[in-house]
Amino acid sequence: MTGGLGVPSRRNALAGTGALALVLLVVAPLMLSDFRLALLGKFICFAIVAVGIGIAWGRGGMLTLGQGVFFGIGGYAMAMHLKLADAELNGGSGVPDFMLLYGDGTVPGWWEPFRSPLFTLLAVVALPALLATALGLAIFKRRIKGAYFAILSQAMVAAFVVLLVGQQQTTGGTNGLNGFRSFFGYSLSDPANRLTLYYLAAGILVAAVALSAALQRSRFGELLVATRDAEERVRFLGYDPALVKTVAFALAAALAGVAGALFVPIVGIISPADIGVVPSIVFIVGVAVGGRAGLFGPVLGAIGVAWAETSLSEAFPSFWSYFQGALLIAVIALLPGGAASLVDRLRERATSPRRGASSPPAAGAAGTPAPAAAASTPADRPAEEVHP
Amino acid sequence: MLHRNRRLIAVPLAVLTGTLALSSCGAKAGETTAGASGAQSCVDTSGDSVKVGFINSLSGTMAISETTVSESLKMAVDEINAAGGVMGKKLDVVAEDGASEPATFAEKAEKLVRQDCVAAVFGGWTSSSRKAMLPVFETNNSLLFYPVQYEGLESSPNIYYTGATTNQQIIPALDWLKEQGKSKIFLVGSDYVFPRTANKIINAYAKANGMTVVGEEYTPLGSTDFTTIANKVASSGADAVFNTLNGDSNVAFFRQYRSLGLSPETMPVVSVSIAEEEVSGVGVENLVGQYTAWDYYQTLDTPANTKFVADFKAAYGADRVTSDPMEAAYTSVYLWKAMVEKAGSFETDAVNEAADGVSFDAPEGTVVVDGDNNHITKTPRIGQVDSTGLINTVWSAPEPVEPDPYLKSYPWAAGIAG
């Protein structure tokens, strides 16, 4: 059964992960200038979010339109620690600069724990995961799914942004938090340290992909796909689909939190504009373009879309957004399974031309599989959009 | 299965350990002194041209405003090139889109400075975009010219602020209101850093000058529901409204304000984010007779402005208008040129050395750079919107006002700058 679910063989997964590691950790640092490498570092952060979305949406069927919240929690947690650490540098007052300007010059109580590096690192992973667990249990136990879940997560992002913007004196408002000078004691203006940060992000991405691959081949991974395709059947078999989905959702949230925490020192800023409704949708777009159900589709899609956006906007500053829109429409209309599905399609066409030609059109990228359609799919046949 | 998982995770774990080991190479924070940045300037001034960067939002919510700035920057560069360039070198423009997002501004600024090696960058509008770019220019010891009025409380050796700071816009507007005998002020603003800081200053000013703030309301950027706020304004008994709303919100606010029977005669509104460019967007009928606080209007009668307006219309269309940020952007290019020529060098430290006292006969009048805080002198003016959508000066400061971004010369502002 494992083979039929779009899961690459163990050898392919290892080879793919190895190739990704080789490109990101060896080839890219040799080929790219400092500036381009830092940009790639930023895209890698998006790719880490994408790996999580691949698990929750691609394999769990939960259209997570609210990953900005978890990305933001991780990012702000790290940013708060860096601001506090910077404020203590060179015998400083311990109060971040913007609080002196816009606040009352004292550090609020809920900031204090973030002085501790250990607490911050734990918070980056644990806060998003805990929030997602609480939300997941509340939502999935009530059997809320499909579009309702998507709307709910989107609303959560909008609310989070309003909250951040309104708290100018403690969150920096629309300015967000920026101007970081050090990262756990290391100067951020030193190119050697910036390179280390890149390696750290790339290493974490490779680790995340490996984790996703392991998960995909595990019993839990099979259960997750089964829950996506036929939730009622999974329930009848004695499993609790709500638990399965919550675990996947929490994992995606934790990955987004880690990505946010890496984004902060690499990009040098976190603001409501980086985590709002639009960025949350862009996370999804990358995954949709790359192919959401596969192992490497989300990663390649996230990096590809971000890279295309940057290159197009550099080449055509005044009308690049049209190209970006056209690209998105083209991929969704012509390759509903994402760019990664192109490989599968070609291979399929080569082995059995008839089946490739008659395969039914896949569900739109923004939709989750309709329960009725999924339930009618025989259990031993993959749901169509996993493997069009 | 356990075995498989272990192998899949072992490889990246080894990679992670390896990369962490690398971290011992870099400099510790605090060890390097300020200015000892890793990146060396790569600006190439050996040829017969030199690159400059523009960074404006050409897409996203700010595009409507920032495109105009990009146009007037381009006009200044074209003029300078036609007149022989800067120190005999033609200016080559590299334009980038900030896409109305702070992180994109930071990314593109870094690209301009490190990849394109531009000698100076012009642009930015929102405070968040400036705050996002500031570390990029400080780390690379490069120059940004920022052309928009802002909330003050900042001065960086790597940024020149050619728009008004608060004592060249907000405080003169308050002085004018006081002169008009207005003592009860209602504050309406969008919820972001500029309105919040402006209103903090207004509250301190009011306390020291016997005025009362009878209401203070914020709405999220882009909000268009003003039923409640307009009613609060109407029933507050205020003499005047101080408006720091941005963009579309103004349309909704002024419509609601008029529908309640309020008018400039009974309760004037002083706006600080509505310039000529925005008047048509908000609707002339909504704004006729209302007041604005800026340092430049298209209607100013100076020889430099007559030429500026005529040239702009010739280049971009007779129906186009010029506004304060456009004028400040245009001025910023000429100020940079003057600084470079005084320094005899394109190099940041030399330009900074030369900056103090550099002046330019701008459309708004002669402006002078203050080398202590990198701001410029400006003449505050209160304007009134007329039925053609232009703004006419009704009050003007007797002489240019020295920039004071931290409001050090105002005793009542002691608590504001922290």
What report would you give on this structure?
Chain A: GO terms for molecular function: branched-chain amino acid transmembrane transporter activity. Chain A: The chain crosses the membrane at residues 12-32, 38-57, 64-82, 118-140, 147-166, 196-215, 242-269, 281-307, 319-343. Chain A: InterPro entries: ABC_transp_permease (IPR001851), ABC_transptr_urea_perm_UrtC (IPR017778), LivM-like (IPR043428). Chain A: It is found in: Cell membrane. The complex is a heterodimer of chains A (388) and B (418). Chain A is mainly alpha-helical. Helices cover 70% and strands 2% of the residues of chain A. Chain A has one domain. Chain A contains 18 helices and four strands. A two-stranded antiparallel sheet of chain A has the order 1-4. In chain A, helix 1 runs antiparallel to helix 8 (191-217), helix 2 (34-59) crosses helix 13 and helix 8 (191-217) packs antiparallel against helix 11. Chain B has two domains: 49-164 and 307-376, Response regulator (Rossmann fold); 167-295 and 381-413, Response regulator (Rossmann fold). Chain B is globular, with a radius of gyration of 24 Å. In chain B, helix 2 (63-82) packs parallel to helix 12 (324-343), helix 3 (102-115) runs parallel beside helix 4 (127-139) and helix 12 (324-343) packs across helix 13. Chain B is 40% helix and 18% strand. In chain B, strand 12 and strand 13 form a beta hairpin. The chains are: A mainly alpha (388), B alpha/beta (418). At the A-B interface, helix 1, helix 2, helix 4, helix 6 and strand 2 of A face helix 1, strand 2, helix 3, helix 4 and helix 6 of B.
